[in-house]
Amino acid sequence: MVNITRLERVIEKTRDIVENSREELYQLGETARIDYERTKHELALTRNDISDTIREVDALELDYDKSRVYLMDVSRNFDKYDEEQIKNAYDQAHQKQLQLLSKREKEKMLRLHRDYLERNLKTLEITIQRSEELISNIGMALKILCNDLENASVQIGEMQQMQALGISVIMAQEEERKRVAREIHDGPAQSLANIVMRAEFCLKVMEMNPSLLEDELYSLMDLVRKSLQDVRKIIFDLRPMSLDDLGLVPALKRYIEQYITDYGIFVEITIMGQEYELASSLVIAIFRVIQESMTNVRKYANATEIVIKIEYLPKKINVVVRDNGQGFEIDKVTKEKNGMAFGIVGMRERIQLLRGKFEIKSTIGQGTEVILSVPSTTMDNVDGGRR
Ligand SMILES: Nc1ncnc2c1ncn2[C@@H]1O[C@H](COP(=O)(O)OP(=O)(O)O)[C@@H](O)[C@H]1O
Ligand SMILES: [Mg+2]
Questions:
Q1: Residue 276: left if φ>0, alpha if ψ -120 to 50, beta else—which one?
Q2: Per the CB 3.0–4.6 Å rule, which of 252, 310, 341, 381 could disulfide with 337?
Q3: Which of 174, 333, 347 to mutate to test the pocket of ligand 1 (most atoms within 8 A of CB)?
Q4: Ligand 1 first shell, C-beta below 6 A
């Protein structure tokens, strides 16, 4: 048996880890982005430096050429220049040469640095792109993961619910058996015992006063007829045969007729929408819930009237059973009976088993309403599994 809270913990942990990784990846991406901006800025500065340096190199080359021309001139005309001037010309040419060389060196270094920055920029660009892709991938994975795991946990939860339902269905059946046993004990069993006694009495009457026998036999027959009626009623309650033959609405109408005759409570039934054939599991569930509601009304409500509404929608059936009786406190009853109110519990579970909704509303002094709604399309599938 899979433990659902443990599964949920695993889900939560996995989600945490994945979310943390995403956060870290995001941080990495951010750092790369900052590096990228900084490198880009530095590259721009370096490019400026390079063009400045190139201009300086060009100017220095011109200068150097000029100083060399002057030096050649000086060295060719020893007689025109004195020693001091010749030395100066040498020094200047040399100086210019040195300056030019160092500027060229600087230009070379700057170019190298620029190439390095350009390579860096490319790498950073790729890093940023990759991290963005990864973040979106992880986001997607996270979504899939969470959805799937959540689905799994929902499925397990439903399975467990079904199992719990199965147990209460068995308990409800047991309760139903007890009820039937009690009904047979109180009704037909007692009547039969009575009949035996009356039959013995008839024998005695026949011996002692045969003229009274006819009356006695008639009343015995009445008793037998009534017992037969009781037995039929019990059989009908166990499994209304008309339900299979007639369908939900006619079977209900027949049941209601008998109910009115037996208990003198007025019942009005309204069918809305276009009636259509329903799966037999659904028909039985709806019939049973209405039957249990009506039994509760006659037993506890002190009502004079019941209104039943059945609405056939394309994909579901809505049912309302409302009485004008004294009402009751649902919470109190549930607490007092400690979940053992098999009537109400059984109704709710029957409907939930069919993936429907069930609700009871009751107001003291104003009556009670049993409301349910069941999907009519996914029937005959109460095996706890999914399609
Ligand atoms: N229509 C109703 N009007 C008044 N009280 C009701 C009605 N339906 C149910 N109850 C109250 O709720 C209790 C629980 O009902 P139920 O679950 O059917 O169990 P049970 O019929 O075996 O007592 C009843 O004992 C009664 O007090
Ligand atoms: Mg009941």
A1: beta
A2: 341
A3: 333
A4: 296-297, 300-301, 323, 325, 327-328, 333, 341-344, 368
Residue 81 lies in domain = 4-163
Given CA atoms 261, 265, 268, 269 in this order, what sign does their dihedral have?
A: negative
The bound ligand whose nearest atom lies closest to the alpha carbon of 344 is 1
Residue 276 covered by a domain: yes
Distance CA 156, CA 195 (A): 57
Residue 326 within any structural domain of the chain:
yes
pLDDT by residue for the chain (387 residues), tens digit each? Answer: 556 677 778 778 888 888 888 888 889 889 999 999 999 999 999 999 999 999 999 999 999 999 999 988 888 887 888 888 888 989 999 999 999 999 999 999 999 999 999 999 999 999 999 988 888 888 888 888 778 777 877 888 888 777 777 777 777 778 778 888 888 888 888 889 999 999 999 999 989 998 989 998 999 999 899 888 888 888 877 776 677 788 899 999 989 999 999 999 999 999 999 999 998 889 988 998 999 999 999 999 999 999 999 999 999 999 999 999 999 999 888 777 665 556 888 888 889 888 899 999 999 999 999 999 999 975 444 443 333
For 236, the token pair is 């009908």
Atom of ligand 1 nearest to the CA of 330: 12
Domain final residue, candidates 134, 163, 192: 163
Do residues 322 and 306 touch, judged by C-beta distance below 8 A?
A: yes
Atom of ligand 1 nearest to the CA of 342: 17
* Ligand 2 ion local residues (Cβ < 5 A): 296, 343
For atom 18 of ligand 1, the residue with the nearest CA is: 343
**Among protein residues, the one whose CA lies closest to atom 16 of ligand 1:** 343
In a domain, 352, yes or no: yes
Ligand closest to the CA atom of residue 338: 1
How many Å lie between the centroid of ligand 2 and the Cα of residue 232?
Answer: 21
Is beta strand 305-312 parallel, antiparallel or unpaired with respect to 357-363?
unpaired
